[in-house]
Amino acid sequence: MEIPFYHIDAFTREAFGGNPAGVCALERWLDDRALLAIAAEVNLPATGFFSGDKPDLQLRWFSGAGELDLCGHATLATGYVLLNDSGPQRERVAFETRAGRLEVARDRGRLALDFPALPVQKEHSPALVADALGLLPQSLWEAPGGRGMAVFADAVQVRNLRPHTAAVAALPFSALIVTAAGFEGDCDFVSRYFVPKHGIAEDFVTGSAHCVLAPYWAGVVGKAQLFARQLSARGGELWVEDRGERVRIAGECVPIGRGTLTIP
After folding, report:
1. Are residues 8 and 71 located together in one domain of the fold?
2. Helix count and strand count (H, E) for the chain
3. Residues 198 and 178 in one domain
4. pLDDT at 89 over 80
5. Whose CA is closest to 24, among 81, 83, 106?
6. Which terminus of the chain, N or C, has fewer Cβ atoms within 10 Å?
7. What is the mean pLDDT of the chain?
8. What is the mean pLDDT of residues 147-152?
9. For residue 110, what is the domain's CATH number?
10. Taking CA 226 as the corner, what is the angle to CA 220 and CA 229, rounded to the nearest 5 degrees?
């Protein structure tokens, strides 16, 4: 079996920045073991698999460790392939996923995700994460899906954090977002995202984390549209909008390669 394959850097304007994703176009669904094996072989943070007839496309995401419930950068990458390679005349594409119906649409030279908002629900003592992060945050929150979010006093603290991966993995959260107000005159807020429970010490750029971050910072800053940076080693840029129950997350993509996977 031959599968069309694309390597896309998402949430970046420069090659080798942002978060790399694989995209596989399937004529029919393979079993889960095969999808997991392909994702592990490709060895990118996430690979999106899509199949079906338009407009009823189905999309699933896998890392080398298992299937993902929600993945922003691989959805953006899949949308890029469908809107700029397979269907340049189209304005949007919709997917049925484990997280419900998701859309990718053209947005003034970028692509924008329509994702569910995941506002924080519960506050914890900041001391809970101080040892794992090596610094005490100002506040600590929990969002749906067990995502923790530590808020720091300034962006420099977020940039300079050197967390203890094993200690982060031992925290009672599925993942940990760290965030602060942005650098003055540059961006509205910054973040980093740690997911050691899923085999990723630090994710490069995380669309799904901004389902939590966008409503939080919209409330703090007092405006719905914000520009954000994720301060990973590769870096990422995201234009987000709080829309109540939904979040719009826009970014750019850079294609790195395309080819064919040959599966026995």
Report:
1. yes
2. 6, 18
3. yes
4. no
5. 81
6. C
7. 95
8. 98
9. 3.10.310.10
10. 100
Q: Are residues 88 and 179 in the same domain?
A: no
pLDDT digits (tens, 9 = 90+) for 129-146: 999 999 999 999 999 999
Q: What 3-state class would DSSP assign to 143?
A: strand
pTM value is 0.95
- Is the pLDDT reported for residue 88 higher than 70? no
- Under 8 Å CB-to-CB from 116, ≥6 apart: which residues? 99, 100, 211, 245, 246, 247
Q: Are residues 188 and 205 in the same domain?
A: yes
- In tens, the pLDDT along 206-231 reads 999 999 999 999 999 999 999 999 99
DSSP at 72: H
Q: Amino acid letter at 66?
A: G
Same structural domain for residues 136 and 68? no
pLDDT in the model for residue 98: 95
What residues make up the domain containing 111?
2-116+250-262
| 129 and 203 fall within a common domain | yes
Secondary structure of 175-206 in the HEC alphabet?
EEEEEEECCCCCCCEEEEEEEHHHCEEEECCC
